[in-house]
Specification:
Number of helices: 6
Distance between the termini: 157 Å
Structural class: alpha+beta
Shape: rod-shaped
Largest sheet: 5 strands, mixed
Mean pLDDT: 87
Number of strands: 24
Order of helices and strands: HHHEEEHEEEEEEEEHEEEEEEEEHEEEEE
Helix content: 10-25%
Amino acid sequence: MSYREHDGDDKKRFNWIPSIIRHDFVRKFIALFFACLVYFTVSIKVGEVTNIQGVAVRISLPQGLVDKDTEVKKVRVTLRGSKRALSSVTASDIKIKLDVAMDKFVPSMPYSIKIDAHDIRTPVGTRVSGVTPSFLTLNLEEEESKEVTIQAKFNSLRKLPSDLKVDKVKLTPSAVTLTGPKSLIDEIEKISTVPIPLDSTTLESFEYQVKLTAIPGVKIIPGEVKAQVDIVKEFVSKMFKSIPIKVLGNSQGQHLKVELLTSPHAEVTLSGTKGNITNFKPEKIKPYIDISGFDKPGTYMVDLRCWIDDQGIKVTNIYPKQVQIKVTRE
């Protein structure tokens, strides 16, 4: 098939397109493109205006500086565009990024930065008409890093069973690095964990991965540590006063009478687990003297002893150690 025949076939193939369009198509297409472009540009310039509240501003800081104000800064952006383009625009569709220049930073002085139109990116079909406020004041400060120790914190030590207590806590690592504004970092000597949970079911030592308490504006590395919590039985001592002294024995069958010449009461100190001591009844304490070895009248010093009906509790002290008695015939 010749070139002329092939060209004729192509013309027949596009016969369905009106000749007004087919004739000089490229020039007409270019004219249509620019017409649309002009329409689009004009529609933006003379279109409607809307205000978008709460547009977040992202601040890019050079290394070594930090913003003490942790709250995200927001502005109002005025947009112009067609009604259709503006109808779906939200604050999250608008992007604002400001760069802080290190050479303009002056320690202990506010840093003012202007928001220009070229700092703002808006959706297609809209353009920036204005921004309020157009200047932001930043509270910048030099950044500092510091290593501090960690203090373990618990939700409530009283939730443990009454016989148990936290003996010690080993934290790994034992220190963390804080990074933030110099004035803030200088004031921090230690950091605490979030509360480590304890309750009535805590009966033995345990390991727990615990986060550290957040400090606004400060980076904490690492943000959590391993806590080895040692749970042990808690032993306490308690003094019981004014416990009646009992007299035991019958003086080997002799008709003798015993009289206490010193106080008929004793002070007894007991030791044991906290739960046992807390719940112990004073009437279970039996301080006594044994007179079964005495068979003659007279005045004597007798050792004071004590009996406790509880194997989990020990007598650690009795006062007085001895009492004076007088033995007479009945």
